[in-house]
Amino acid sequence: MNLRTSSLIALAGLSTLALAACSGPAAGTDASAAPTAEGEAFTVVATTTQVADFTRELTDGLNVEVTQLLQPGMSAHSFEPTPADLVALGSADLVVSSGAGLEEWLDAAVSSSGYAGEVVDASAGVTLSGSHEHDHGEEAHAEDEHAHAEEGHDHAEGEEHSHAEGEEHSHAEEATAEETTAEADGHEHAEGEGNPHTWTSPANAKLMATEIATHLEELPGIDAAAVQANADAYDAELTELDTWIAANVDAVPEADRVVVTNHDALHYYLEQYGITFVGSIMPSFDDSAEPSAAEIDALIAEIKEHNVKAIFTETQLSPQNAETIAAQTGAKVFSGDKALATDALGEPGTPTGTYVGATVHNTQMIIESWGATATDVPEVLAQQ
After folding, report:
1. Do the beta carbons of residue 156 and residue 243 sit within 8 Å?
2. Which of 191, 287, 363, 364 has the fewest CB atoms within 10 Å distance of its CB?
């Protein structure tokens, strides 16, 4: 966290104390707090647009108000909490974070807000991977990063489908639990341990939703059975999403499955589906980083070597660098409506306004960049 952010949080903290003095004690200062008046809503504060969407899915139909700190189009890497954000944190019954070191500003914000309750790390069950210092040309295949496929393992729908190499995807929930659940081997996340963009993989999204649901069910007075029913329904949607993505990716020749992005945000998605990550414009996970001339030259060389036909910008980032590189490589820039929704979802009601919708959009654009057309979206996903 930089000095400017720390100073803003400190100033915001003073404002929060003044506001709290006027509005009364914050409900979130008691870890066991729950609505006391009949009909009063639970208040849950979620950091990113993705975990806020997961939480809304899990609390659908329940008396729960979900406040998200990051708004559509905002980057989690450069986010600076406002006094209003700290007031929301201080009055929460539960705080949900994406985790994995993504929200470097969160600890200071929670401390300044006076919140003393639980902060849920939605990524607690995810095995982190990916290096902070990636090389252009790094591959995101499961066999190169961590074993993500098991011989003889069935797909979520009970059907088998193979990589071009003859290895099977590990899309089913059972494999996900065995291979990505960190708790099985006592794994604990340390800040900076791996790529923090955990949600991009539907398999990880399932684990994150499960983690959030577990903590929601523990809120005193909440309808835990309803939360679990929502969790089961959402898990089924994510399984359908995984099946649809896998079928579309597998229909494209392996040599054509290459991706270049603004920053290294799709690591887990690419890893799950056996897609080669040629490189990113930004030299790190942080989308505010700037590439050096040498890094740009190296990426241009990789794009030419791998015959990459597209460079993806992201909704929270300028396409300027991508356009400069495209002019030297002949690659097409996917920007504007074709940009990927990675660090932030879109506005509510738009195609990228939910996690499922954004992941469908990203997949359609990636498939299009390979010269193919994605199949029709299953009805259950098209409604999202």
Report:
1. yes
2. 191
